[in-house]
Structure formats: structure tokens, C-alpha cells
Amino acid sequence: MIIGFRTKGGSISETANFVNCSRAAVVKVYRAWQYGAIQNQWRGTCGAPQAIDDRGERRLRRCVQANRHATVEQLTAQMNQGATKSVSSTTVQRTLLCMGLRSRRLVIFPQNNGIYQQDNARRHTACSVCAWFEEHQDEFTVLPWLANSLDLNPIENLWDHLDQVVRAMDPQPRNLAQLATALELARLNIPVNTFRNLIDSLPARLAAVRSAKGGYSGF
């Protein structure tokens, strides 16, 4: 009742008077709900039934254990095989995240000839980061880059893409755990063409930065 009244716009004092409890209790319960420590029972029983129930989760876990390198599409095909009601790859992906399992996607550079680009900020040149790059130097090459050159770094556009996708979600994430799941889901569903378009934009970025003499380039 506290959570329902607060989410409808009630203040702490109004909620305390309505429920007949202390203001401290309202703050404690609502904060616990925000950070995922408790769940709103009313929200848990409303809406459409889950596409993948407990039995489906057990089946999905068995599929993952049988092939830990399976992609979301492959797992979805296995889940729909012989099923009376099919599920989408997005549903499978979301269920994997809720189960604490990170879904996999196809590797863009299967020949280990990828190029890794970063803006060379100080946190990116820490000893632990450099050591990790050395351990994976056979998988990709770290591209030399100017420090803190945000206009030249396409990752900034990807952050903006994730922000727009999450803000367009309905319903919106209500706590940190849901936000983390939403961001992970949005990241895994970024179209490959989005990456390629950003890579193809690098020549124009360089020209714009040179034209602006290092100032704001519009990217």
C-alpha cells in the first residue's frame, strides 16, 4: 500500500497519514522497493502472464548448459521446437538476463583481426586495463588515439542510442536492477548496421575536427 500510494504521487507525509504509520517507515519501505529489495505484490500479479514460466526457465537453463556458446537465436529456436506457444528472441534474451545469464551474439571479427578504439582517457590507460589488453592482443589491435577526443569517439553516439532506447521503453525501469537489465537488453539489440555506420563516419569526423581546429565539430 505504501508503494502504491507513493508511486501515484503521494508525499511521504500523506502516505504516512493514509497508511497510519511513521514517515521513517514510509521512507524505508519505498527506498527498499526502489533498489529492488522488495517487490510490489500488486504489480507482480497484474498484466499478462509470463511468456516463459518457471518450467520454461528450467528448460532454457538446460539448453544453455548443453551449449554454452549458443546464440539467442539458437536458444529461441530450441525453446520453440515442439512448443504450443512460441516465444520471441527478445523474450528469451530478457529471461536470460533475469536468470543472471548473459546472452551471446555472433562475433563480428571471427578471425581475431578486430581493431579496438578508445578515447585514451586516463582510466583507459590504467595498469590493469593495459594488462588486460596485453592478454588479449591476439584477438584485436588497440588503435592509437588522442587522449579525451570525444568528438572522434563513436562510443559517445552509442551511449546516446542506449539512452534513447531505454527512455522509450514502456514500462520504464523502476529501480537500479531493472535499469541494468534494460541497458543490457538495449545493448545486445543494437543493430550491426549502427556500428558500421559509426565506423564509416570516421573520415567525416576527422575532417570536421580539423576544420574546427580541435573545437566543437558537431559530432
TrEMBL record:
InterPro entries: RNaseH_sf, Transposase_Tc1-like
Pfam families referenced in this protein's UniProt entry, alphabetically: HTH_Tnp_Tc3_2
Domain Transposase Tc1-like: 58-105
GO BP field: DNA integration; DNA transposition
GO molecular function, one term: DNA binding
Alphabetical list of Gene3D superfamilies matching this protein: Ribonuclease H-like superfamily/Ribonuclease H
Descriptive protein name: Transposase Tc1-like domain-containing protein
Protein's organism: Araneus ventricosus (Orbweaver spider)
Lineage: Eukaryota, Metazoa, Ecdysozoa, Arthropoda, Chelicerata
